[in-house]
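Recall the central idea of this unit: under ordinary conditions, the amino acid sequence of a chain determines the structure it adopts. In this exercise we apply that idea directly, starting from the sequence alone.
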Amino acid sequence: MARPSSPLLSREKIGRAAIGMIDGGGELKIQPLAKKLGVSLSSIYHHVDGREGVIHAMREVLSVEYALNIPDQGSWKDNLKAMVDSLWRLYSDHPRVMIHLLGVTVEEPGTLTLYESLIDVLADAGVPETELLTTIEVLDAFAFGAALDALSPQVIFAPASEDSRLTSLIENHPAGTERNHRLYRRGLDFIIAGIEVGLNQP
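Accordingly, the structure predicted from this sequence is:
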């Protein structure tokens, strides 16, 4: 009997199947994942080191699909926005997956390249060496938080009184995806404005 032209299982296939399972509302468990792939548990363990290995495989898949796209020409602010946009799109498309990735150290080359690029842009803009990593962590945490906000219900606030100021504000405020996108854009503008203020301080 001829051997299949491609392996029946790979880290990429495991990562993609796990992403699909979690995006669909399932839990990250090895046995259901093996069943979904139609393989044995030992086959999974041949390619990944347990549950944490599956998480690394998911990150490898996502780092390729959401590869960094930096404008050819632009200010440091334009480049920074493009990079954070890459993170936000990834987090927004797979918020439940991101919750799992938070607990595992980043070691995938594709993902590390994004953070290295962020460091380069911020350093070239003049952010002090001692502030670079903290600034990146702030940007990353913001992108993740904005993505999780997308899981919020259409109506977030339900004031008891129709006369409250919150009620009147809600009437003229966007909802759903439009609200989430506005939150992200305005929030990123605030952070970049804060970075710029810091650069101009003596």
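The mean pLDDT is 89.
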